[in-house]
Design goal:
Layout lengths: L6 H8 L4 E5 L3 H14 L3 E4 L2 H7 L1 H14 L4 E8 L2 H10 L3 E4 L6 H16 L4 E6 L23 H11 L3 E4 L15 H10 L4 E3 L7 H9 L2 E6 L1 H18 L5 H22 L4
Parallel strand pairs: 1-2, 1-8, 2-3, 3-4, 4-5, 5-6, 6-7, 7-8
């Protein structure tokens, strides 16, 4: 069933867990993520967002994600991730997305406030909740670059976060507390800063770039108010490794379907395992 409203986040917080939000680029990944939600019996979110449209196309990927959510036996949110274009955000809201993210984190602060507030107005008019972002994450959402942890001056400031939430009306806030996009083995979360952010704002917090972080730190972050954890690199790696292993066995018969199935199952297992880890200590 397609998720509606912020209960997907608030219910997770109340239950001591976070929602797994998984990036998707194609049919097999959409199916795998929905299946992982069904096998765990827990809500999941499909991140069918701006950079993912570059591969699959906006209308096609949105249709796949929304159809999978509507037909699933568990709650599935369809989320526009890292959007910087208000026209694109409006299109996704009107198409039926359950939530959207406006990412103005690399803009001057006042511009981020103004454009995020406009995104909130557009989305709320359609009953859609909004995630904003404050603080800059290193790395690339779609490829692993080996970026290190964020510098202190790029992390989210709790005082500014309180002002940002109050002035924009966002329903959730993505924060930078040492997390980076892609695998970064040397990355660690600033849990003290995260605790200060939890005290400063009342909305659920979102953690992007959790790949490679110690499981203990992720669980501690959930205990400090993180209600949504975005996952991408683990799924890409699982997909590519499975297809690499399967490729020599399918080439003689040109059995592409078997190859696609192997990738899909690897993504399902990876998402399933991640969902089981997203609980507070």
């Amino acid at each position: 069933m397609l998720s509606r409203g912020t209960a997907i986040l608030t219910d997770a917080l109340a239950a001591g867990r976070a929602v797994g939000a998984f990036a998707t680029y194609n049919l097999e990944q959409v199916q795998a993520i929905a299946a992982a939600g069904e096998t765990t019996g827990l809500p999941v979110m499909l991140l069918a967002g701006s950079s993912h449209f570059n591969h699959a196309g906006r209308r096609l990927l949105a249709t796949l994600a929304l159809t999978a959510a509507q037909e699933s036996t568990t709650e599935v949110g369809v989320h526009l991730d890292h959007c910087r274009d208000l026209d694109e955000l409006r299109w996704c809201v009107e198409a039926g997305y359950s939530s959207v993210m406006y990412d103005g984190s690399h803009d001057p602060y006042e511009d981020n406030v103004a454009r995020t507030a406009e995104a909130v107005r557009i989305a709320h008019d359609h009953g859609v909740w909004v995630e904003g972002e404050l603080g800059a994450l290193a790395g690339d959402e779609d490829v692993t670059t080996g970026a290190g942890s964020g510098a202190p001056d790029t992390m989210t400031d709790p005082v500014q976060a309180a002002d940002f939430v109050a002035r924009t009306g966002v329903d959730a806030l993505a924060v930078a507390v040492g997390n980076v996009h892609g695998f970064a083995p040397d990355a660690h979360l600033d849990l003290e800063r995260l605790a200060d952010l939890r005290a400063a704002v009342t909305v659920p917090l979102v953690l992007h770039g959790a790949s490679g972080l110690p499981e203990k730190e992720i669980r501690e972050a959930i205990g400090l108010g993180v209600a949504k954890v975005n996952v991408n690199a683990e799924l890409r790696r699982a997909y590519l490794h499975a297809m690499t292993e399967e490729l020599p066995t399918v080439l003689p018969a040109d059995d592409a379907v078997r190859l696609w199935r192997a990738g899909r199952e690897a993504v399902r297992r990876s998402a399933h395992d991640t969902i089981g880890q997203l609980v507070r200590p």
